[in-house]
Amino acid sequence: MAFRSRAVALSLLTAVLAAPAAAAPANPPQTLALHDATTLPLAACAARNLLFMDGYTVSLYLPDNGHPPNAAISAHMPKAVRIDVTWQGNLPSQLPGTWERRLRQGVAPDVFGAVREIYARLSGGDSVVFAHAPGRGTAVSVNGRRVLASNDASLVDTLLDMFVGPEPVSRNTKRLLLEPGC
Length: 182
Known about the structure:
The chain is of the alpha+beta class. The protein has helices at about 1-15, 95-105, 110-120, 155-165, 170-175, and strands at about 30-35, 40-50, 55-60, 80-85, 125-135, 135-140, 145-150. It has a seven-stranded antiparallel beta sheet.
């Protein structure tokens, strides 16, 4: 009998972990103003749910011709990734392993260190915007306050690759982000 209970529990846990991302529960802004005064429209968004709970909502802001988002990974166009932390519990103090590996490979060491510090201070309800404006660099803001500036697009490009690239952190989130709108 104990074996059967464990098998049922394992099956339930497997189903929960494999559950698809849901439509975004939050209403992200329809436009986003970058640090160079460029305004980008919302291209797509998706929620990432973990164990029946909302984890975060990711929203992509791209020029009108930037859909599908995987075509937008270019240093020559403005773009932004907004992550709204919807998880209401305590966040881990370290980046998730997949995120850490991808960011460590994709960005300069000083930018990676700064992103780790930013993540360690996040809590439920926080909004993080990673925005790139060609010729003006990349800015990261948390709840509207700029916390990081960089001269290249690698941070935003790496995030776009993580969400809509060939090996996304979540296939279901990618599927939703490749659909226009929210």
